[in-house]
Amino acid sequence: MKDLSSNSSRRRLRKPSHKWFCRGEVTSPLLAIFFIFFMAARAEARIYIQIDQPSEKKFPLAVVDLVSEGKGEDKNWSRKVSEILRKDLALTGLFDLIPEDQFPNSEGSRATNPAKIQFQPWSLIGVQALVNGSYERGKDGIHVEMHLYDPFLGQHIVARSYNSKGNEYSVVAHNFADEIVKQLTGEPGVFSTKIAYVQLGKKTKEIGVMDMDGLNPHQITKDKTIDLSPAFSPDGGRIAYSTFSRNDSTEIAVVGSGGGAPKRLTANGGVNVSPSWTPGGQLSVAHSDTGDMDIFLMNMSGEFTHKLAGSYGIDVNPAWSPDGSAFVFASERAGRLHLFKAGAGGGGVERLTFVGSQNDNPAWSPKGDKIVFQSLSGGWDLFIMNTDGSQIQRITSTGNCESPTWAPNGRFIAASCGGHVVLMREDGTNLTPVGPGGSLQPSWGPAAK
Amino acid sequence: MYSSPFRKYLVFSLGAHVAVFLISLVVPALFGRPYKFSQDKVVWVNVPKGTSNTLGSPLKKSAGLPQSTIEEQKNALKAAPSGQPKKPLMSYTPPNQKPEKKPQNIPQRIGLPASKVDSALARMQKMVAMKKKVEQEAAQVPDTQPGGFTFGSGTGPYVSPDDPEYVMYQLKIRQKIMDQWILPMKYTEQASGLICRIIVHINDRGEVIATEWDQKSGDPSFDLSAQRAVQKAAPLDLPPERLKYEVFNEGFIVEFKPTQVTQTVP
């Protein structure tokens, strides 16, 4: 018997394969090639594009004139509300206001009834938000309805109705502009807020108040002297300011934001300037008897209750953080005027600026994250920095901008540039004059309640 | 253990595998497309707002107060996104036209003294020299702050891309779609946390031929703005040769994920 278990016999007994594809020397390379192709195919990946920020293109928005629902047309109501709305929304720097000559004219596109309006003509010209409205004269005055739509989604976003007894075009327009901004940005607008300012006269400077867009400017003091540095109280009810008196002293006075008789708080015969309210409603002022100005807390009787900052050289222009835990001020304690920060009681003084000269008039943002100030750099210009003094960036370069103040939402800054109150976005863009000629030293009032 | 013929075939097979693998490395073209070990790696590049070509340009620390405003810095980036002034790459003279010769001996204008001309020219040159050089700058920049983000949402340092061709193409597409993405501000002024993803297919002319949703945010207004951006961005740039297969067969996946817009450095 042959030993079938031996290798030699196994080799002899094995039938050689005639099928070439079964042979190892061919299949192995094929498998290898397949494997490599498989690996390569597996390595396919879609190209990922991450879009984390939208374009800087402004949001396309159309504001249509109001339509009369009753008998006869009142051109003021038809035009003025829409004009103020357009002006206010342009101030934000966020909207691309579509020109009226591009508006569709079909009846359906101009309908003010949300159930009847046709959106397609608006979406075809790229309008992403549409504002229209109607008014009707009744026995009690004018009834106004305003609407905001998203033409692409065909959605009615919001509607508001107003009853006006007089010609309150600006009240309706400001209120609905606030609503539009709230709906589209998630933050309420500031169009119903007020700005106090110094109105330059021939020989006098008086305090005035206007809407934030410059409408309805009116003088609230008739002191016939030099009034300066108005400061809105946190509740918006009062305005503190410094006023030159006949005995060559400068005193602090307070007047109601709607006008009325001013009340002199100080009568110490010294120099009392740059009043500033703490968030809690106390006044801080810079005071000097001898020429070396220091900063004090003051009660409403005009008595200094606490010295906040005092050093060799002047300390002036305090501005409080929104939580009242600290204030920033200008001081000559390091030589030239620079900005310093101190705790609410005046302790823990920290120097904030080491560059520039005559750094002055700081204003702490309502969000608490930034400080804007003026500095002499060729001319007076505005700069912005973090509250620890880092990252100073320039926001104006016209050489004539002073006295910055923040909008209550922290999105805008007002200042006096070239003899006008101007508004700009927080980064200095979209600078727009709003105040009357000769308007200086703005102070932005609190958010409307 | 294994029998002798099996061992022989095993060794032969291993040898063949190694040989084919080595050939594939040396002459990748024989196997269709090159094989890369790191194909699965996705490079995410965080780019400042509107300045896709400013990778690696840190904020300049100015010794005194900054000379240029934030607005001027932004405009400078928009005007010359590559950091270089726009100018023609080469001048071309048609073959039949002789280039104009620079006139020699320009006659003086009667009545205008040469000294006045010289002083006017000097003033003009001075004005040109005085023209402000706009740089991405700020004063009192802390040393600990990572370089880079002037206007973006990011706070970290730039990511160094390790595949410039891929990243550059990514950035071109990103810029085009980003330029067309007009989003209601509520999604950017406050962190919304919304994300949507669209798979985009283009043809060899760069036209968008199909889009499909990979993920919707659930907010119709947000989703629609993303879809509009993709459609309006067309025609998109064509890919470089190496990326054509991926682009034409797989498409892009475009992720819209707005971060809070910060105009100045936090």
What is the fold named in CATH at topology level of the largest domain in chain A?
Answer: Neuraminidase
CATH architectural grouping of the largest domain in chain B: 2-Layer Sandwich
In round numbers, the mean pLDDT of chain A is 88
Topology as H/E string of chain B? HEHHEHHEEHHE
CATH topology of the largest domain in chain B: Fusion Protein Consisting Of Minor Coat Protein, Glycine Rich Linker, Tola, And A His Tag, Chain: A, Domain 2
Overview of this protein structure:
The complex is a heterodimer of chains A (449) and B (266). Chain A has 2 domains: 59-185, Rossmann fold; 194-444, 6 Propeller (Neuraminidase), CATH 2.120.10. Chain A is 15% helix and 40% strand. Chain A has 6 helices and 31 strands. In chain A, helix 3 (75-91) crosses helix 6. Chain A is globular, with a radius of gyration of 34 Å. Chain B has a 3-stranded antiparallel beta sheet. Chain B has a two-stranded parallel sheet with strand order 1-2. Chain B has helices at residues 4-26, 70-79, 114-130, 164-180, 186-189, 220-233, 244-250; strands at residues 60-62, 137-139, 196-202, 208-215, 252-256. In chain B, helix 4 (164-180) packs across helix 6 (220-233). Chain B has 3 domains: 1-35; 41-83 and 133-161, no CATH class; 163-266, 2-Layer Sandwich (Fusion Protein Consisting Of Minor Coat Protein, Glycine Rich Linker, Tola, And A His Tag, Chain: A, Domain 2). The chains are: A alpha+beta (449), B alpha+beta (266). The interface between A and B is large, with 70 and 92 residues.
